[in-house]
Amino acid sequence: MSLILSNKNKPKFSDQGCLMWYDGDSSDGSKKFWRCDKRKYGCKARIHTEGVTNRVVKRLNRHNHDESAAEVAAATIKNAAKRRAEDTQEQPSQIVNTTIRDAPPAVMGVLSKSALKQQIRRTRNRASVAPPNPHRLQDLDIPQPYRVYKPTPDTGCVLVSKTGN
Ligand SMILES: [Zn+2]
User: Fold this and answer.
1) Last residue of a domain, one of 11, 37, 60
2) Residue 34: which domain range?
């Protein structure tokens, strides 16, 4: 099984139980290169995937360690938590509890709840488009994603609520 763990800055790819870090594209852009995340421990394993299908087309060098399914599972959980942080208004602790609910003990061994929470906060801070509170009514400019309109019979559209900070 292999899947892309979407992460805008550092995409990862799980291949045969090992996490691979994105290492660039081929010059014609048709392939992506990945290297094992255990490189700092001397693992020289690399793979090439097809740019469009993400199918593994080449495996170079053997891993010098056992696969770590727990780490792959932990990365998947982190990813799910980040997505929830972006897509929901849930409290960080609630997101953590939801995403780790079904995690086996081995996964919890490589995953830290507080690190997960911190990552959720960082994701939130980056995604935040909430403006500071205005001092005067004229300064009130609510960004589009925060506007909720409710049609009324006589006035047309009325802004009824504002979410966020
Ligand atoms: Zn490796």
Assistant:
1) 60
2) 2-60
Alpha carbon of 17 to ligand 1 centroid (Å): 10
15 and 36: one domain?
A: yes
Phi, psi of 34 (to 5 degrees): -135, 150
123 and 94 in one domain?
A: yes
Residue 55 binned pLDDT confidence (cut-offs 50, 70, 90) = very high
- Centroid of ligand 1 to alpha carbon of 114 (angstroms): 27
pLDDT digits (tens, 9 = 90+) for 125-163: 887 655 556 666 666 666 666 666 666 566 555 555 555
Q: Are residues 53 and 25 in the same domain?
A: yes
CA-to-CA distance for 56 and 30, rounded, in angstroms? 12
Which residue reads 């953590």 in tokens?
A: 96
Q: State which of 60, 83, 101 marks the end of a domain.
A: 60
Distance 59 CA to ligand 1 centre (A): 11
Q: How far apart are CA 67 and CA 15, in angstroms?
A: 9
